[in-house]
Recover the amino acids of this structure.
Protein backbone atom coordinates (compact mmCIF):
# COMPACT_ATOMS: atom_id res chain seq x y z
CA UNK A 1 0.00 0.00 0.00
CA UNK A 2 0.99 3.62 -0.48
CA UNK A 3 -0.27 5.10 2.75
CA UNK A 4 -0.63 8.73 3.71
CA UNK A 5 -0.58 8.80 7.51
CA UNK A 6 -1.57 12.09 9.12
CA UNK A 7 -0.29 12.83 12.61
CA UNK A 8 2.40 10.18 12.31
CA UNK A 9 4.67 11.86 14.86
CA UNK A 10 2.06 11.51 17.58
CA UNK A 11 1.58 8.63 19.97
CA UNK A 12 -0.65 6.24 18.01
CA UNK A 13 0.47 7.50 14.61
CA UNK A 14 4.13 6.75 15.26
CA UNK A 15 3.44 3.18 16.36
CA UNK A 16 1.33 2.61 13.23
CA UNK A 17 3.93 4.19 10.90
CA UNK A 18 6.62 1.82 12.22
CA UNK A 19 4.33 -1.19 11.83
CA UNK A 20 3.38 -0.23 8.25
CA UNK A 21 7.04 0.20 7.24
CA UNK A 22 7.94 -3.13 8.84
CA UNK A 23 5.22 -4.74 6.72
CA UNK A 24 6.72 -3.32 3.53
CA UNK A 25 4.29 -0.48 2.86
CA UNK A 26 5.31 2.96 1.60
CA UNK A 27 4.47 5.70 4.09
CA UNK A 28 4.18 9.45 3.78
CA UNK A 29 3.73 11.09 7.16
CA UNK A 30 2.03 14.49 7.18
CA UNK A 31 2.44 16.08 10.59
CA UNK A 32 2.12 19.69 11.75
CA UNK A 33 4.50 19.05 14.67
CA UNK A 34 2.27 20.65 17.26
CA UNK A 35 3.13 20.32 20.95
CA UNK A 36 1.95 16.69 21.13
CA UNK A 37 4.15 15.48 18.25
CA UNK A 38 7.55 14.02 18.90
CA UNK A 39 9.68 13.32 15.80
CA UNK A 40 11.97 11.24 18.04
CA UNK A 41 9.14 8.67 18.09
CA UNK A 42 10.18 7.90 14.50
CA UNK A 43 13.96 8.28 14.81
CA UNK A 44 14.53 4.60 13.99
CA UNK A 45 12.74 4.87 10.62
CA UNK A 46 13.56 8.47 9.65
CA UNK A 47 15.90 7.38 6.86
CA UNK A 48 13.91 4.30 5.79
CA UNK A 49 13.79 4.08 1.97
CA UNK A 50 9.98 3.83 1.95
CA UNK A 51 9.35 6.64 4.41
CA UNK A 52 8.85 10.33 3.77
CA UNK A 53 8.09 13.05 6.28
CA UNK A 54 6.14 16.14 5.22
CA UNK A 55 5.87 18.98 7.70
CA UNK A 56 2.44 20.45 7.17
CA UNK A 57 -1.12 20.99 8.29
CA UNK A 58 -4.11 18.77 7.38
CA UNK A 59 -6.08 21.99 6.82
CA UNK A 60 -3.69 22.98 3.98
CA UNK A 61 -5.96 22.29 0.99
CA UNK A 62 -3.44 22.16 -1.91
CA UNK A 63 -0.87 20.22 0.11
CA UNK A 64 -3.42 17.64 1.26
CA UNK A 65 -4.84 17.33 -2.26
CA UNK A 66 -1.37 16.58 -3.69
CA UNK A 67 -0.48 14.06 -0.99
CA UNK A 68 -3.83 12.26 -1.18
CA UNK A 69 -3.43 11.99 -4.97
CA UNK A 70 -0.19 10.01 -4.45
CA UNK A 71 -1.72 7.55 -1.96
CA UNK A 72 -4.05 4.58 -2.19
CA UNK A 73 -4.92 4.70 1.52
CA UNK A 74 -5.22 7.66 3.90
CA UNK A 75 -5.00 6.97 7.59
CA UNK A 76 -6.04 9.93 9.73
CA UNK A 77 -4.46 10.12 13.18
CA UNK A 78 -3.99 13.89 13.16
CA UNK A 79 -6.04 15.31 16.01
CA UNK A 80 -6.14 17.35 19.14
CA UNK A 81 -7.08 14.69 21.68
CA UNK A 82 -6.80 15.96 25.22
CA UNK A 83 -10.19 16.64 26.82
CA UNK A 84 -8.73 19.00 29.44
CA UNK A 85 -7.13 21.16 26.75
CA UNK A 86 -10.43 21.22 24.84
CA UNK A 87 -11.98 22.90 27.89
CA UNK A 88 -9.26 25.56 27.88
CA UNK A 89 -9.01 26.15 24.11
CA UNK A 90 -11.80 24.53 22.04
CA UNK A 91 -11.18 26.41 18.77
CA UNK A 92 -8.10 24.45 17.81
CA UNK A 93 -10.08 21.21 18.24
CA UNK A 94 -12.68 22.37 15.73
CA UNK A 95 -9.95 23.38 13.32
CA UNK A 96 -7.85 20.21 13.41
CA UNK A 97 -10.45 17.59 14.25
CA UNK A 98 -13.30 18.90 12.05
CA UNK A 99 -11.87 21.23 9.40
CA UNK A 100 -8.90 18.90 8.97
CA UNK A 101 -11.23 15.97 8.27
CA UNK A 102 -13.27 18.02 5.80
CA UNK A 103 -10.02 18.90 4.02
CA UNK A 104 -9.17 15.20 3.76
CA UNK A 105 -12.70 14.39 2.58
CA UNK A 106 -12.53 17.03 -0.15
CA UNK A 107 -9.21 15.63 -1.35
CA UNK A 108 -10.53 12.07 -1.29
CA UNK A 109 -13.71 13.10 -3.11
CA UNK A 110 -11.79 14.68 -5.97
CA UNK A 111 -9.14 11.93 -6.15
CA UNK A 112 -11.65 9.07 -5.94
CA UNK A 113 -9.67 5.77 -5.92
CA UNK A 114 -8.36 6.23 -2.41
CA UNK A 115 -9.57 4.65 0.81
CA UNK A 116 -10.01 6.95 3.79
CA UNK A 117 -9.59 5.39 7.22
CA UNK A 118 -10.33 7.70 10.12
CA UNK A 119 -9.53 7.31 13.81
CA UNK A 120 -12.39 8.25 16.12
CA UNK A 121 -13.14 7.57 19.74
CA UNK A 122 -15.53 5.88 22.15
CA UNK A 123 -16.12 9.36 23.57
CA UNK A 124 -18.54 10.23 20.75
CA UNK A 125 -21.16 8.18 22.63
CA UNK A 126 -20.79 10.16 25.83
CA UNK A 127 -21.13 8.53 29.23
CA UNK A 128 -22.80 5.11 29.26
CA UNK A 129 -24.75 3.61 32.17
CA UNK A 130 -23.31 0.57 33.96
CA UNK A 131 -23.76 -2.63 31.98
CA UNK A 132 -24.21 -0.91 28.62
CA UNK A 133 -21.79 -1.15 25.69
CA UNK A 134 -21.89 1.03 22.59
CA UNK A 135 -22.24 -0.90 19.35
CA UNK A 136 -21.19 0.71 16.06
CA UNK A 137 -24.70 2.07 15.39
CA UNK A 138 -25.25 3.60 18.85
CA UNK A 139 -26.34 7.26 18.83
CA UNK A 140 -23.78 10.01 19.40
CA UNK A 141 -24.03 11.99 22.65
CA UNK A 142 -20.71 13.81 23.04
CA UNK A 143 -20.24 15.97 26.11
CA UNK A 144 -16.82 17.66 25.85
CA UNK A 145 -15.57 20.09 23.20
CA UNK A 146 -13.11 17.33 22.24
CA UNK A 147 -15.71 14.60 21.81
CA UNK A 148 -18.10 17.02 20.10
CA UNK A 149 -15.36 17.78 17.56
CA UNK A 150 -14.76 14.08 16.93
CA UNK A 151 -18.52 13.48 16.54
CA UNK A 152 -18.77 16.49 14.20
CA UNK A 153 -15.98 15.00 12.09
CA UNK A 154 -17.91 11.75 11.89
CA UNK A 155 -21.05 13.60 10.78
CA UNK A 156 -19.03 15.24 8.00
CA UNK A 157 -17.74 11.81 7.02
CA UNK A 158 -21.31 10.49 6.87
CA UNK A 159 -22.39 13.46 4.78
CA UNK A 160 -19.56 12.95 2.28
CA UNK A 161 -20.05 9.18 2.14
CA UNK A 162 -23.75 9.71 1.41
CA UNK A 163 -23.46 12.63 -0.98
CA UNK A 164 -20.47 11.46 -2.99
CA UNK A 165 -20.77 7.67 -2.51
CA UNK A 166 -17.39 7.39 -0.84
CA UNK A 167 -16.31 4.34 1.15
CA UNK A 168 -14.90 5.51 4.48
CA UNK A 169 -13.81 3.34 7.40
CA UNK A 170 -14.13 4.81 10.88
CA UNK A 171 -12.30 3.12 13.75
CA UNK A 172 -13.48 4.05 17.23
CA UNK A 173 -11.04 3.11 19.94
CA UNK A 174 -11.19 2.99 23.69
CA UNK A 175 -8.42 4.75 25.69
CA UNK A 176 -4.96 3.83 24.43
CA UNK A 177 -1.78 3.74 26.55
CA UNK A 178 1.82 2.64 26.19
CA UNK A 179 5.30 3.96 25.34
CA UNK A 180 5.61 7.36 23.65
CA UNK A 181 2.29 8.78 24.83
CA UNK A 182 2.44 12.49 25.67
CA UNK A 183 2.96 13.08 29.38
CA UNK A 184 -0.20 15.19 29.77
CA UNK A 185 -2.46 12.12 29.49
CA UNK A 186 -3.66 10.31 32.60
CA UNK A 187 -1.44 7.21 32.56
CA UNK A 188 1.88 8.84 31.50
CA UNK A 189 1.20 11.86 33.72
CA UNK A 190 0.70 9.62 36.73
CA UNK A 191 3.68 7.41 35.87
CA UNK A 192 6.13 10.25 35.36
CA UNK A 193 4.96 12.02 38.51
CA UNK A 194 4.97 8.82 40.58
CA UNK A 195 8.55 8.17 39.45
CA UNK A 196 9.42 11.67 40.68
CA UNK A 197 7.51 11.21 43.95
CA UNK A 198 5.14 14.09 43.02
CA UNK A 199 1.40 14.19 43.86
CA UNK A 200 -1.01 12.50 41.42
CA UNK A 201 -4.08 14.67 40.71
CA UNK A 202 -7.03 12.28 40.64
CA UNK A 203 -10.17 14.05 39.43
CA UNK A 204 -13.27 13.88 41.65
CA UNK A 205 -13.96 10.55 43.33
CA UNK A 206 -11.72 8.63 40.88
CA UNK A 207 -14.50 6.14 40.17
CA UNK A 208 -14.89 7.16 36.53
CA UNK A 209 -14.43 4.10 34.33
CA UNK A 210 -12.33 3.90 31.18
CA UNK A 211 -11.69 0.96 28.86
CA UNK A 212 -7.97 0.55 28.17
CA UNK A 213 -5.99 -0.90 25.27
CA UNK A 214 -2.21 -1.31 25.08
CA UNK A 215 -0.83 0.40 21.99
CA UNK A 216 0.55 -2.81 20.44
CA UNK A 217 -2.95 -4.31 20.54
CA UNK A 218 -4.30 -1.19 18.89
CA UNK A 219 -1.72 -1.46 16.11
CA UNK A 220 -2.67 -5.11 15.60
CA UNK A 221 -6.33 -4.04 15.35
CA UNK A 222 -5.50 -1.34 12.79
CA UNK A 223 -3.66 -3.96 10.71
CA UNK A 224 -6.71 -6.23 10.79
CA UNK A 225 -8.92 -3.32 9.71
CA UNK A 226 -6.53 -2.34 6.89
CA UNK A 227 -6.38 -5.92 5.66
CA UNK A 228 -10.09 -5.90 4.82
CA UNK A 229 -11.21 -2.38 3.99
CA UNK A 230 -14.76 -2.49 2.61
CA UNK A 231 -15.01 -0.80 -0.80
CA UNK A 232 -18.77 -0.32 -0.88
CA UNK A 233 -19.83 3.33 -0.54
CA UNK A 234 -20.85 4.38 2.96
CA UNK A 235 -19.41 4.63 6.45
CA UNK A 236 -17.95 1.40 7.77
CA UNK A 237 -17.53 1.79 11.52
CA UNK A 238 -15.58 -0.66 13.64
CA UNK A 239 -14.92 -0.59 17.38
CA UNK A 240 -11.54 -1.33 18.93
CA UNK A 241 -12.04 -2.25 22.56
CA UNK A 242 -10.66 -4.72 25.06
CA UNK A 243 -13.48 -4.92 27.61
CA UNK A 244 -10.89 -4.09 30.31
CA UNK A 245 -12.73 -1.35 32.16
CA UNK A 246 -11.33 0.06 35.34
CA UNK A 247 -12.03 2.96 37.64
CA UNK A 248 -9.28 5.60 37.45
CA UNK A 249 -8.45 5.07 41.11
CA UNK A 250 -7.53 1.42 40.49
CA UNK A 251 -5.26 2.43 37.62
CA UNK A 252 -3.63 5.10 39.79
CA UNK A 253 -3.04 2.61 42.62
CA UNK A 254 -1.46 0.09 40.24
CA UNK A 255 0.82 2.78 38.82
CA UNK A 256 1.90 3.74 42.35
CA UNK A 257 2.83 0.18 43.15
CA UNK A 258 4.67 -0.37 39.85
CA UNK A 259 6.55 2.93 40.03
CA UNK A 260 7.72 2.19 43.54
CA UNK A 261 5.65 5.05 44.91
CA UNK A 262 3.30 5.23 47.81
CA UNK A 263 -0.47 5.37 47.31
CA UNK A 264 -0.48 8.48 49.48
CA UNK A 265 0.84 10.27 46.38
CA UNK A 266 -2.72 10.09 45.00
CA UNK A 267 -4.40 13.40 45.72
CA UNK A 268 -8.10 13.94 45.05
CA UNK A 269 -8.57 17.23 43.23
CA UNK A 270 -11.49 19.18 41.77
CA UNK A 271 -13.26 17.20 39.07
CA UNK A 272 -13.10 17.88 35.33
CA UNK A 273 -16.25 19.82 34.34
CA UNK A 274 -18.68 17.54 32.48
CA UNK A 275 -16.50 14.53 33.29
CA UNK A 276 -17.96 11.41 31.62
CA UNK A 277 -18.40 8.59 34.14
CA UNK A 278 -18.07 5.60 31.91
CA UNK A 279 -17.09 4.51 28.40
CA UNK A 280 -17.57 1.00 27.04
CA UNK A 281 -17.37 -0.41 23.53
CA UNK A 282 -18.89 -3.50 22.00
CA UNK A 283 -15.99 -4.73 19.85
CA UNK A 284 -17.66 -7.90 18.55
CA UNK A 285 -17.35 -6.83 14.92
CA UNK A 286 -13.56 -6.61 15.13
CA UNK A 287 -13.28 -9.83 17.14
CA UNK A 288 -15.30 -11.64 14.48
CA UNK A 289 -12.44 -10.75 12.13
CA UNK A 290 -9.96 -12.63 14.30
CA UNK A 291 -8.54 -9.85 16.46
CA UNK A 292 -8.22 -10.29 20.19
CA UNK A 293 -6.11 -8.24 22.61
CA UNK A 294 -2.87 -9.88 23.75
CA UNK A 295 -1.76 -7.58 26.57
CA UNK A 296 -3.82 -7.45 29.76
CA UNK A 297 -3.88 -4.11 31.58
CA UNK A 298 -1.70 -5.30 34.47
CA UNK A 299 1.01 -6.44 32.07
CA UNK A 300 0.58 -3.38 29.85
CA UNK A 301 0.92 -1.00 32.79
CA UNK A 302 4.07 -2.80 33.94
CA UNK A 303 5.57 -2.50 30.43
CA UNK A 304 4.58 1.15 30.27
CA UNK A 305 5.97 2.07 33.69
CA UNK A 306 9.22 0.32 32.82
CA UNK A 307 9.43 2.22 29.50
CA UNK A 308 8.95 5.63 31.14
CA UNK A 309 11.44 4.72 33.88
CA UNK A 310 14.09 3.64 31.37
CA UNK A 311 13.49 6.25 28.64
CA UNK A 312 13.40 9.60 30.41
CA UNK A 313 15.36 11.13 27.52
CA UNK A 314 12.37 10.40 25.23
CA UNK A 315 9.78 12.27 27.30
CA UNK A 316 11.66 14.81 29.42
CA UNK A 317 11.83 17.32 26.52
CA UNK A 318 7.99 17.42 26.64
CA UNK A 319 8.26 18.95 30.12
CA UNK A 320 9.38 22.30 28.65
CA UNK A 321 7.92 25.78 29.09
CA UNK A 322 4.67 25.06 27.18
CA UNK A 323 3.91 22.05 29.36
CA UNK A 324 4.80 23.85 32.58
CA UNK A 325 2.44 26.67 31.64
CA UNK A 326 -0.34 24.19 30.77
CA UNK A 327 0.27 22.24 33.96
CA UNK A 328 0.05 25.38 36.07
CA UNK A 329 -3.18 26.41 34.36
CA UNK A 330 -4.72 22.98 34.65
CA UNK A 331 -3.50 21.87 38.09
CA UNK A 332 -1.95 24.83 39.89
CA UNK A 333 -5.01 25.81 41.90
CA UNK A 334 -6.35 22.28 42.17
CA UNK A 335 -3.18 20.86 43.70
CA UNK A 336 -2.69 23.95 45.82
CA UNK A 337 -6.23 23.60 47.17
CA UNK A 338 -6.17 19.79 47.51
P1 LIG B 1 -7.45 11.16 29.81
O1 LIG B 1 -6.11 10.49 29.64
O2 LIG B 1 -7.48 12.66 29.73
O3 LIG B 1 -8.44 10.50 28.75
P2 LIG B 1 -10.04 10.74 28.51
O4 LIG B 1 -10.56 11.75 29.45
O5 LIG B 1 -10.09 11.23 27.10
O6 LIG B 1 -10.66 9.40 28.71
O7 LIG B 1 -8.05 10.76 31.20
C1 LIG B 1 -8.40 9.44 31.52
C2 LIG B 1 -9.19 9.48 32.80
O8 LIG B 1 -8.34 9.93 33.85
C3 LIG B 1 -10.37 10.45 32.75
O9 LIG B 1 -11.49 9.87 33.45
C4 LIG B 1 -9.88 11.65 33.50
C5 LIG B 1 -8.89 11.08 34.51
N1 LIG B 1 -7.78 11.99 34.85
C6 LIG B 1 -7.51 12.30 36.20
O10 LIG B 1 -8.19 11.84 37.13
N2 LIG B 1 -6.47 13.16 36.45
C7 LIG B 1 -5.71 13.69 35.47
O11 LIG B 1 -4.79 14.49 35.78
C8 LIG B 1 -5.99 13.36 34.10
C9 LIG B 1 -5.16 13.92 32.97
C10 LIG B 1 -7.04 12.49 33.85
Amino acid sequence: MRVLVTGGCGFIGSHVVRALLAEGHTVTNLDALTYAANPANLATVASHAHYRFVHGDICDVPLVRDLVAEADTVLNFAAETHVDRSLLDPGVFVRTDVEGVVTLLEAVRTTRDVMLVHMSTDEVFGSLPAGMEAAEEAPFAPTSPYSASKAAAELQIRAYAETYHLPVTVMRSCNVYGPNQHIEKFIPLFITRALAGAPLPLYGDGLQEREWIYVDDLVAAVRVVLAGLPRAPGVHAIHIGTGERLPNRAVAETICRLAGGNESLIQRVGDRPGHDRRYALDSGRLRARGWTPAVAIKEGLALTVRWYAENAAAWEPAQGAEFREYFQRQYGERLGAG
